[in-house]
Write a structure and sequence with these properties.
The structure holds 2 protein chains of 2 kinds. In chain A, about 40% of the residues lie in helices and about 15% in strands. Chain A is of the alpha+beta class. In chain A, helix 4 (about 40-50) crosses helix 5 (about 55-70). The model of chain A is unreliable at about 170-210 (pLDDT under 50). Chain B is an all-alpha fold. Chain B contains 7 helices and 1 strand. In chain B, helix 1 (about 5-20) packs antiparallel against helix 2, helix 5 (about 100-115) packs across helix 7 (about 130-150) and helix 6 (about 120-125) crosses helix 7 (about 130-150). Chain B starts with a helix and ends in a 5-residue tail after the last helix. Classes of the chains: A alpha+beta, B mainly alpha. Strand 1 (about 75) of chain A pairs antiparallel with strand 1 of chain B.
């Protein structure tokens, strides 16, 4: 047993030294120069160096290079230059820095600010719905102007209407007609407020004005007003008379509509122009009548007249 | 690592690599700007200051992006910007820059000029330490050979 241990120990001690190949020696030369090899490898390379001149030259090169680099590594950059390097900017950076708002001259900045504010105010003024802000309405007057009419320039009238207006107002005495109850002739009262073109033109407010819209008064409306003791038979006769002269109902109510307050009958109708004189003559047999010719927005077809006849029931 | 020391090492790397002051300044400025941007981005994340591993990463990244393949043709340094040690001879380094493999050159530059630890180089480049040592060894052999015998004839 003892002899066996001795034999094995002797065997370990007498182990052959590992020999490195030339290639391995070259590759491990740097490690050798740095002293980082284990004892076996270091011994192997040392042995190789004794016999290999190329390897010695390589090792010498490594030492020379290390010495050389050690010297070069003393090279320094001046602190001032390091600071400069930190501050150096590329052309594009320098351009963007120059273009920064803070870099602009004061005058140019103020000009742009003023322009921007003006544009913003103008846009706000244009976009805001001012009509919705009633709080800014300073006009506290109760009057409302419906229409403004220039006196120098009267409202335009159709030529036909002008012709009708120029026609003489009924001034003649109408001969007694042959109605059954009223046998004596009736003198037609002269229409005091009779129609004068200028006066008519000066009464535009009778036209139905809606809101502020001014409607052109190119048509004509003839208002006839009568006043006498009116019974239902007379009302019916007058209605028939109108119909017999070609009159047709206009407006919303029936012909000869009975009204209570004021008491009377209302006839709104249109009639052929050629029958107008006959109708007037016939109506004159009942009572004196007043005729008003008023310009109106509604224009009647050619040869037609629109008439509103109001007969007030005169109590005895 | 202090910012000024780091900036100086970056500048040195490009001076030794480009051997041209204008190019070195442009590259240094670019990398330093990138560092500042990165710092702002990483502000408050608890990360420590810049170290030499970052230096390796940044310069390697710059080299990859710029695809620099042009070898220096002349040596150009302005007076005052770079403080060169007395009796220094830049000829061998210039030749070394032209002849050496980029990886070996950079390994020598990081390790022997800038004093970056081999482990930091390995981590920065993402390669094993053995690879870095191999590159340094080969680079030094070439540089030493140039120093001893001048540039080998092609």
């Amino acid at each position: 047993m003892h002899s066996a241990e001795e034999a094995s120990g002797e065997q370990r001690l007498t182990r052959e030294v590992r020999k490195l190949s030339r290639f391995m020696s070259q590759e491990l030369l740097y490690e050798f120069s740095q002293g980082r090899l284990d004892n076996d490898r270091r011994s192997a390379i040392e042995d190789e160096l004794k016999v290999n001149s190329d390897l010695r030259a390589e090792l010498e090169s490594i030492f020379v290079a290390e010495q050389y680099t050690r010297h070069l590594s003393l090279t320094k950059i001046s602190p001032a230059h390091v600071s400069e390097l930190k501050k150096i900017r590329s052309l594009s950076e320098a351009f963007f820095i120059k273009m920064k708002w803070q870099s602009w001259p004061d005058l140019v900045r103020w000009t742009f600010e003023a322009l921007a504010i003006s544009v913003v105010v103008a846009v706000i003024a244009a976009v805001l719905p001012w009509e919705k802000f009633n709080t800014f309405d300073f006009d506290t007057k109760p009057e409302i102007t419906l229409a403004e009419i220039e006196e120098a320039d009267p409202l335009p009238l159709d030529e036909k209407v002008k012709e009708v207006l120029k026609k003489p107002v009924i001034e003649k005495t109408i001969e007694p007609a042959p109605p059954p109850e009223l046998a004596k002739p009736i003198e037609v009262e002269k229409s005091v407020e009779a129609v004068k073109p200028i006066e008519v033109a000066a009464t535009p407010t009778q036209a139905p004005l809606k809101e502020n819209k001014v409607l052109p008064l190119k048509g004509l409306l003839i208002n006839i007003i009568m006043s006498f003791e009116l019974n239902p038979e007379h009302a019916s006769e007058i209605k028939d008379l109108i119909i017999s002269q070609g009159g047709t109902k206009a407006g919303q109510v029936e012909l000869g509509w009975k009204k209570n307050n004021p008491d009377g009958n209302y006839y709104h109708f249109s009639i052929p122009e050629e029958n107008y004189s006959k109708l007037i003559s016939s109506l004159g047999s009942y009572s004196a009548l007043r005729i008003y010719k008023n310009p109106h927005e509604r224009v009647m077809p050619a040869g037609k007249l629109r008439i509103i006849l109001w007969i007030e029931n005169k109590k005895p | 690592m202090k910012e000024n020391d780091f900036s100086e090492k970056i500048a040195l790397y490009f001076y030794f690599s480009f051997l041209d002051e204008a190019k070195a300044q442009a590259a240094t400025t670019k990398v330093l700007k990138k560092i500042h941007q990165g710092r702002r981005f990483n502000q408050g994340d608890g990360r420590e200051g810049i170290n030499l591993i970052d230096l390796v990463r940044l310069t390697e990244s710059f080299n990859l992006k710029s695809r620099r393949a042009i070898k220096p043709m002349s040596l150009a340094f302005a007076v005052g910007h770079i403080v060169i040690p007395e009796n220094s001879n830049w000829g061998p380094w210039f030749e070394f820059r032209k002849l050496a493999n980029d990886k070996n050159f950079n390994a020598v530059l990081y390790s022997k000029i800038l004093g970056v630890n081999e482990n930091e180089i390995a981590e920065g480049l993402g390669v094993p330490v053995g690879t870095v040592r191999y590159r340094i060894g080969h680079g030094l052999k070439l540089l030493g050979s140039i120093c001893q015998h001048g540039a080998p004839h092609a």
